Amino acid sequence: MMADPKIIVVLPAYNAAKTLEKTYADLPKDKITKIILVDDVSEDQTVEIAKALGLSVVIHVQNKGYGGNQKTCYLEALKDGADVVVMLHPDHQYDSRLVPELVRPILEGGADMVIGSRILNGRALEGGMPLWKFIANRVLTFLENKVFGTRLTDCHSGFRAYSRRLLTMVPFLLNADDFVFDSQMIAQAAYMGFRIAEVPVQARYFPEASSVNFKVSTVYGIKTLGVACRFVLQRLGWARFRIFEKTLPEVVSRYYHEAIFR
Questions:
Q1: Which end of the chain has fewer beta carbons closer than 10 Å to its terminal beta carbon, N or C?
Q2: CA-to-CA distance for 127 and 130, rounded, in angstroms?
Q3: Rounded to whole angstroms, how far apart are CA atoms 203 and 153?
Q4: How far is residue 187's CA from residue 184's CA, in Å, rounded to a whole number?
Q5: Closest by alpha carbon to 91, among 11, 171, 2, 4?
Q6: Cα separation, 165 vs 183, whole angstroms
Q7: Radius of gyration of the chain (CA)
């Protein structure tokens, strides 16, 4: 078990004013070192509420998208010296009380990436997951497991934990700025040999919780298949892709190395 770990929770936020306080209230503060919210140019009171709650707030100058938001989240956490980084959507869809369970496999040395699986407990549909989303999740996760050599039940959860070791190696800055960022992270972790684990979580689906619509989900699914294709081509040696060949230190300016990789 890692001694006195620095656990930082990052919240990639966009118009989360209605749910942020609930998400924050459930977080086990005694188990967390710091909470960072990165606002992606919200049009509501997300920033004001975050500051009132005492969170560390980073505000984008312009909208960068879901993946772009995560890039800022991880850079800020690494600069703060995080040993483990938890990425949690601030829409109260995931049970933030489960942070200790999510980080435990990393602290015990058994994993570098942990995904909060909505499927593992067999209650995804009970939680309100739309049937079409459930079916798409199962099909995509099955295909990704076949390609990446993993045994995951939910490759598309927005509740994840990463070790510092993984985040300082995977070149996440080269990833997309949209939702397929999450699929690329799993592909990179698998390609580089990092250990991926899962813990069961119960997700909630309600009007205020952010959820991509069918059209966006379809685009995301197609892009995820594209990631899988690139993974295969890279493994077979038929093509080369920077997201699999580079490491984070190779893509970060040397002037930032001391702050990020200390």
A1: N
A2: 9
A3: 14
A4: 5
A5: 11
A6: 19
A7: 17
Residue 131 belongs to domain with CATH number:
3.90.550.10
Whether 251 is in a domain gets the answer: yes
How does pLDDT run along the chain (262 residues), one tens digit per residue? 777 999 999 999 999 999 999 999 999 999 999 999 999 999 999 999 999 999 999 999 999 999 999 999 999 999 999 999 999 999 999 999 999 999 999 999 999 999 999 999 888 888 788 899 899 999 999 999 999 999 999 999 999 999 999 999 999 999 999 999 999 999 999 999 999 999 999 888 876 665 568 788 899 999 999 999 999 999 999 999 999 999 999 999 999 999 999 8
Cβ neighbours of residue 174 closer than 8 Å, sequence gap 6 or more: 242, 243, 246, 251
Read off the pTM.
0.96
Q: Which residues constitute the domain of residue 54? A: 7-260
CB 55, CB 73: distance < 8 Å? no
Least Cα distance to 184 among 138, 224, 239 occurs for 224
